[in-house]
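QA checklist item 7 of 12: single-chain prediction sanity check.
[x] sequence parsed
[x] length recorded as 327
[x] structure emitted
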Amino acid sequence: MTRISLEEAQIAAVGNRWLQERYYSSDGDTVGDFLSFRAVYEINPFEIGGDHSAERAIYSSRRRVIESMLGLAPLRRRPFASLSNGELRRVVLARALFRETGEVALVGGCGGLDSEWRGRIAELSRALRPLGVDLRVSGQPHRSKNESPCTASSASGSAKTGLPLMEMSGVGMSFGRRVLFKDFSWTIREGERWMLCGPNGSGKTTLFALITGDSPFAYACDIKVFGRRRGEHGVVLDGVRSRIGCVSSLQETYLGIPPEAQLDDALRDGTRLLLLDEPCCNMTSAEARSFARRIQKWLRAHPRVAAVWTEHRPERIPPDFALVKRL
């Protein structure tokens, strides 16, 4: 039986890329390049001749089914570096399934994929059986039993009692013709606990990068952090970042920093805003519960700190996160 871990496949795929590349580069190799026959079978581009008819037959028979079931057609021309966490996981899964035969176990479950795509994995498994692949998922359920907070039709409001720590007004973000969000306004106040919701690729991580300043587009948007705009005279980026604690699954992927170590750094004296971007993405349910309890305990001891959590399985988020904002 072949074992596939989306976490390990994602780490291998990013290689030596850097975390903020998506905000600074609009070119480079595309998803289509990554999923090409030569890339999938690691064929030397300078090879002359060579009989790969058996591999080509397997690749051709599966490509249409896998790309359709995983919704990859809109991604093929996208730069590889521009993919969100969930989009990247669908791409690396497709690459693995293009070539594997027989029993294939997706270990660790479908972390990083939203509800729609977790459901499609089950459909994909059925579609692959006639093509010689028995795909099995272990470790996590395909769908959450309780996803109602992030599927609500409208966002919850704020009590509007604390000082504003982050304010954005009419912010939009697009990459070429692909619009992530537009006319987006949001205020985060002291002591608030928010869930930021949206499907894979909706711009949640990009929005966090605008707040932290990791994205250079922050200087072109109407955003105030701790009452000051980026680029305003006297505003030092390091000074702003020193008051923001961040835990992200992408830091684990690109930088190799475990979420527990990220949290050690984030829960420090001086943190006023805590941003949690799918921090439990690669955890078991027990690990996620322990992680969430630690965050909840710290936040209750620091009631003026604001926090925002993105997670495709909202039942993992502590009940204190009662405010909802949707992209």
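[x] summary fact logged: The CA atoms of residues 33 and 39 lie 7 Å apart.
[ ] second reviewer sign-off
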